[in-house]
């Protein structure tokens, strides 16, 4: 016959241990900024744009802007200011836009939150 007498202390011990585990990470690489942004890039020749190029967060600048780079062999860069406005004159569809609008379109996201959108500061 199975006895459950020792289970109550074991269950309490497990609950106490689980309560002390750290919470899963919910922040992005740079707090308040998305980890990746998807934008199209104007072709310098003016013939064809690059559609859906992914820019990955690279650095927080001293002036508060956040630098993003593509992973192409000749990286394309964009900057996001502290208000979340994108600066990238070579971008076909993101220059001057706010990252919040790109989040709504599913084009700016954070990896650590399982794809959930980070909030701009």
Order of helices and strands: HEEEEEHE
Number of helices: 2
Distance between the termini: 60 Å
Overall geometry comes to globular
Sequence-ordered SSE layout with sheet pairings:
Blueprint lengths: L6 H13 L16 E6 L8 E11 L5 E5 L6 E4 L5 E2 L11 H6 L3 E2 L12
Antiparallel strand pairs: 1-2, 1-6, 2-3, 3-4, 4-5
Could you write a compact summary of the structure shown?
This protein is α+β, with helices and mostly antiparallel strands.
Description:
The protein is of the alpha+beta class. The protein has a domain at 36-109. 16% of the residues lie in helices and 25% in strands. It contains two helices and six strands. A six-stranded antiparallel β-sheet has the order 5-4-3-2-1-6. Strand 2 and strand 3 form a beta hairpin. The chain is globular. The chain starts with 6 loop residues before the first helix and ends in a 12-residue tail after the last strand. Mean pLDDT is 77; it is low at 10-26 and 116-121.
Keywords:
single chain; 121 residues; 6-stranded antiparallel sheet; 6 strands; globular
């Amino acid at each position: 016959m199975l006895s459950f007498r020792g289970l109550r202390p074991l269950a309490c011990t497990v609950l106490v241990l689980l309560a002390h585990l750290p919470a899963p990470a919910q922040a992005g690489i740079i707090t308040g900024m998305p980890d990746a942004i998807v934008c199209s890039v104007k072709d310098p020749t003016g013939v064809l744009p690059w559609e859906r190029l992914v820019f990955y967060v690279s650095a927080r600048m001293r002036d508060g802007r956040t630098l993003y780079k593509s992973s192409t062999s000749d990286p394309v860069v964009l900057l996001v200011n502290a208000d979340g406005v994108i600066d990238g004159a070579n971008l076909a569809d993101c220059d001057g836009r706010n990252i919040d609008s790109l989040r709504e379109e599913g084009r700016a996201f954070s990896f650590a939150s399982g794809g959930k959108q980070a909030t701009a500061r």
